[in-house]
Amino acid sequence: MKAIRRFTVRPVLPEPLRPLSDLARNLRWSWHAGTRDLFRSVDPERWAAAGGDPMRLLGSVPTERLSELAGDRDFLDRLAAAADDLDTYMTGDRWYQRQSGRLPAAVAYFSPEFGITAALPQYSGGLGILAGDHLKAASDLGAPLIGVGLLYRHGYFRQSLSRDGWQQEHYPVLDPHELPLDQLKEADGTPAQITLALPGDRSLRARVWVAQVGRIPLLLLDSDIEENDLIERGVTDRLYGGGSEHRLLQEMLLGIGGVRAVRTYCRLTGHAAPEVFHTNEGHAGFLGLERMAELRAEGLDFDAALEAVRAGTVFTTHTPVPAGIDRFDRELVARHFGPHAELPNLEVDRILRLGMETYPGGEPNLFNMAVMGLRLAQRANGVSLLHGQVSREMFAGLWPGFDPEEVPITSVTNGVHAPTWVAPEVYRLGARQIGSRRAEEALSIGDSDRWDSVADIPDQDIWELRRSLRELLVLEVRERLRASWRQRGAGTAELGWIDGVLDPDVLTIGFARRVPSYKRLTLMLRDRDRLMDLLLHPERPVQIVVAGKAHPADDGGKRLIQELVRFTDDPRVRHRIVFLPDYGMAMAQKLYPGCDIWLNNPLRPLEACGTSGMKAALNGGLNLSVLDGWWDEWFQPDFGWAIPTADGAGTDPDRRDDIEAAALYDLLEQRVTRTFYERGRSGLPDRWIEMVRRTLSLLGPKVLAGRMVREYVERLYTPAAHAHRAMNADAARELAEWKAVVRGAWHGVTVDHVETSVASATAELGSTLALRVRVGLGSLRPEDVEVQAVAGRVDEEDRITDAAAVPLKPVGSPGAGGEWVYEGPLSLDRTGPFGYTVRVLPSHRLLASGAELGLVAVPPEDVAEAAGLLMR
To answer: Which end of the chain is more exposed for a tag (fewer CB within 10 A), N or C?
Structure first.
């Protein structure tokens, strides 16, 4: 029978056990081994049945057991120590508090998904896991972030397989009362509520749930409340579901509603108001519009409000292809803004201009969320060095006249939260070497370039650690594989073979991620005979564990999964290669440590960063990857292997896949397996162990989320906070008016004449040229511009590479025609082909970059030819 009403019955803990509730409701337990061990000791069997979720555990423990623990002095001492440790963690000074200078009072961090723990399933893939790791690392560092997202009642889908290997989706209903969440309430005890206006006099209301992620509050907006009509209740139903309008409403609630939730939270709790707003991908871009509306209400016009908002906004793009960006029909966006909908004090046509693709190759009738994000942020970044380069090229149309390398998008390479992803066995080995306190700080703060102490760990210990992790993975795989086959309809009598699946002494390869086509799940199947030979080699076999989800609407991705599953079902190889459905955080935490090799073979350069290989590396796994994302940046032969890329312009996709698959097989056959199985005098694989050691000691500190968040604080958050403070109402008006004047007068800016003190086409290294440039400024003043000489090496087409800009200074007074003369020295500081040019850029003390306005004046061809200098 089905219940007509559902209640959540919370356990009543005996008074001595009350601290258990505080420990369970702070998600620090998800990365703090001591707290998890305490909960496990409450009831080991129920802890396992609860999936390691303290809230579920406490809801299932019998009263008799609670009474017994309430009288157990040893347990109460451990409980008191855990509670004191959490209090010290929450209130003590950490890295952020020990920094000098005026750091941001608070940063609001917006993301459509957050992967904190499997007990709070609000993530689909890498973007959410990265956001969760960002919050956890910020907490460890003491950085005052406020996380903002949506609470999806169905989360992301659960995955199973049909008998023939087709992906099946299931959407379990999540009850927030059963999750580690607290409802944000007004002073009178009523739930705090956020309201958005919709067309047709409708409203979208949401309540705010708070997940405490260590020191960081994570605000999650929930529209599934009785005050909403049926359609509005479904806005936060599932992650990345629904049609275009449904998605637009989700992103309006995240951005606009998220800012209102932050304001409400700060009002009710006294938390410092954010000086910086960070939008993790374009989904939350509407937050800038809400902040502009706030400033319009304080008397600023649209342009001044835009400048004030931009100063304190950071935008991170994770998307290396235009197709991966949310784009909406302009009429749909227009209908949801303006006098009869949301943000009535912002002009609809001005809102639309922020997101329109008004550049060559763009579609002017589409509203692009990433374009809006970039236009609303003074600082932007990609998530690896290569992705920063790709992003600058992809969005170069927003800064016409500038080479891609000068587009103001920097990069902060992603990292992973080591306390979450490092296996307890690995942590214990490190703690044994340097002590638990130092090990904890090394993993969370990440302020050293090398972990030299790894050099002192004996080879035998490293090898035994790797084997034990592999053995744990084998047991986990067998359990999950058996459950999967039962879901596919197999009976117990059919599954005896599973007891022989995988071998703890065989080289183990992992491949787990989302399944869009560019990640090439099935590249390993390109030559099945060759793969079979690798799997079944009599002396040097390999075994492969694969997992991944295709988007529910992506039938192409589902076909890739089915193709792989059918191969793994083959009785000849099913003991050596497996596909595990329902990839998520709980599986990943066992999978990364247990794999010797982490395989990644995307189409370069479509992997923005790809952090799964980082998690493997922190556990001593070696990477075998295409040079894409973070691997392109940090690859060394000491750490693993690079799969060559067949990226010639004339290579068709099939030919490219054939070439790269063959390269993958070659590496496995000739180098990877030989290194793993080759034994030295000690009977151990000396070369392999040395690669593991170097991975841990040299790569480990680089891949930490602590390093990543410190970079955000130093390179983006703090400059944004300083810009925010400088951009008061008067400064915002001044900058907006100045920009309007410069844009209107820029057509009159010209480079009329260039001359140099050197007439020959050769010069000696270290010599200096004297440049003299005549420019026309029209109605602008010298203080409105910067005249630069841009010099560097030149390529075969005389394009300047590795350019350096040198400002020139005005001399004398303007000429009769209003022209100015600028002079300055140019040092010839490199040998080989060398060239220069001259340009004029807008200049103002409140600009973050000379490219900010997308305006530049350069010499016309006749002037350039007359003054051109090319030294060879």
So the answer is: N
Q: How far apart are CA 872 and CA 859, in angstroms?
A: 22
DSSP 453: G
* Dihedrals phi, psi of 126, to nearest 5 degrees: -60, -35
Helices 302-311 and 729-745 pack at an angle, to 10 degrees, of 110
Q: By three-state DSSP, how is residue 820 classified?
A: strand
What single letter denotes the amino acid at residue 495? Answer: L
For residues 392-422, one letter each, b for 16 or more C-beta atoms within 10 angstroms of the residue's C-beta and e for the rest, the string is bbbbbbbbeebbeebbbbbbbbbbbbbbbbb
Q: Which residue has the higher pLDDT, 862 or 813?
A: 813
The pair of structure tokens assigned to 413 is 């390479």
How is the chain split among helix, strand and coil, in percent rounded to 5?
A: 45, 20, 35
Nearest to 313 by CA among 714, 724, 739: 724
Cβ proximity of 840 and 785 under 8 Å: yes
Task: Please tell me whether the overall predicted TM-score, pTM, comes out greater than 0.70 for this model.
Answer: yes
Amino acid at 801: T
Q: CA–CA distance from 129 to each of 97, 148, 276, 419, 520 (Å)?
A: 26, 14, 22, 14, 21
Burial class for 254, CB neighbours closer than 10 Å (0-12, 13-18, 19+): buried
Taking the C-alpha atoms of residue 234 and residue 244, their distance in angstroms, rounded to an integer, is 14
- Which two tokens mark 270? 């006294």
What pLDDT is recorded for position 871?
38
Q: Contacts from 336-339 at CB under 8 Å and sequence distance 24+? A: 336/198, 336/199, 336/248, 336/249, 336/252, 337/289
Q: Are 508 and 596 in contact (CB under 8 A)?
A: yes
* Cα–Cα nearest to 521, from 592, 577, 585, 590: 577
Neighbours of 4 (CB within 10 A): 5
Residue 753 backbone dihedrals phi, psi, to 5 degrees: -160, 140
Residues 446, 699: Cα–Cα separation, whole Å: 11
Q: How far apart are alpha carbons 407 and 853 in whole angstroms? A: 11
List pLDDT tens digits, range 239-255.
887 889 999 999 999 99
In percent, the amount of the chain with pLDDT more than 70 equals: 96
Nearest to 508 by CA among 602, 577, 589: 577
Tell me how far apart the alpha carbons of residues 210 and 217 are, in angstroms, rounded to a whole number: 6
Output the six-digit token pair for 553: 């609407």
Tell me the backbone φ, ψ of residue 514, rounded to 5 degrees: -60, 165
pLDDT in tens, 75-112: 999 999 999 999 999 999 999 999 988 999 999 999 99
- 795, exposed or middle or buried, with CB in 10 Å at 0-12, 13-18, 19+? exposed
Q: Give the CA dihedral 271, 275, 278, 282, nearest 10 degrees.
A: 110
**Contacts of 136 by beta carbon, 8 Å cutoff, 6+ apart:** 31, 116, 213, 214, 216, 417, 419, 420, 705
